[in-house]
Design brief:
Blueprint: H1 6-33, H2 35-43, H3 47-90, H4 95-121, H5 127-145, H6 151-173, H7 181-201, H8 207-232, H9 245-257
Helix pairs in contact: 1-2, 1-7, 1-8, 3-4, 3-6, 3-7, 3-8, 3-9, 4-5, 4-9, 5-6, 7-8
Length: 268
């Protein structure tokens, strides 16, 4: 499911309302010739019960989507914090190792901002970030063998690198959404059912009232589905999205803290 921008979201809601009005019109045309439609409308329950059941399902799915969005946001924050923590720990390493690691952290953040985030907006992950991430453990392996590198510092760096790697995987897993396809089927099929039955149940009312009730139900359902889609695709939206601001702040922090200004040199 795509993450609709404001214009597409409005078009979806308008299309849903138009669908409800058309359904109401068709039901009235059919009911004029077939008494069965009128009888079904008379014996059916009011829309409240149907809205309640669908509303509970919709609410649970929306809570799930928001929870996933917040978890992904936390992973992005953890990833950025791990970079900053590693730059602070790297200050205790011998200068060659320290400067190499600081440069690799700068390159990681740059690639994340310039390559990864645009790729995530398109529904994929950049292979360049994986290459930048692979260089960090290699430097830590060199630090572990260097007698001039304090073991406690190396241990702290390894822990931070592990946090960085886990957070990056969690972020990548959320690129294309976390809601199963069954959830989307229930949302869309259930929404169509709610709109059609709302129009049917209001058949015996004035035509304009029937269309107003059915159109209102359609607008509510469509807006809710758009909201779920926006939270489920945390990097692809225009209004509800997770941007690279935390990573940009981490890059600025690493650059400012690094003793050697050459860490800001071009990346390989």
């Amino acid at each position: 499911m795509i993450s609709p921008g404001p214009v597409l979201a409005v078009l979806i809601v308008v299309a849903a309302v138009a669908f409800a009005v058309i359904v109401s019109y068709i039901l009235r045309r059919i009911g004029a010739r077939r008494p069965l439609v009128k009888e079904m409308a008379t014996t059916s329950r009011r829309p409240g019960d149907i809205f309640f059941v669908y509303g509970v399902i919709l609410g649970l799915i929306l809570v799930t989507a928001i929870g996933s969005f917040n978890a992904t946001k936390k992973s992005v924050s953890t990833e950025a914090s791990a970079l900053v923590a590693m730059s602070r720990s790297a200050a205790a390493l011998p200068p060659p190792l320290r400067d190499d690691l600081d440069h690799q952290l700068v390159c990681y953040a740059r690639v994340a901002i310039e390559e990864e985030w645009p790729s995530m907006q398109q529904g994929s992950s950049s292979p360049f970030l994986g290459a930048a991430a692979d260089r960090i453990p290699q430097t830590l392996s060199r630090a572990a063998r260097d007698p001039g590198a304090p073991s406690t510092v190396v241990s702290s760096l390894i822990t931070s690198e592990r946090d960085l790697s886990v957070a990056r995987r969690e972020r990548a897993d959320a690129i294309n959404g976390t809601l199963p396809g069954l959830f989307w089927f229930v949302l869309i099929a259930g929404g169509l059912l709610v709109v059609v039955l709302s129009a049917l149940m209001m058949y015996n009312e004035y035509a304009y009232l029937q269309m107003f009730i059915a159109g209102g139900a359609a607008a509510l359902v469509a807006a809710a589905i758009v909201l779920v889609a926006s939270f489920d695709r945390p990097f692809a939206g225009e209004t509800i999205k997770i941007g690279p601001e935390r990573m940009e702040a981490a890059l600025a922090s690493v650059n400012a803290f690094a003793p050697d200004p050459r860490v800001d040199r071009p990346c390989p």
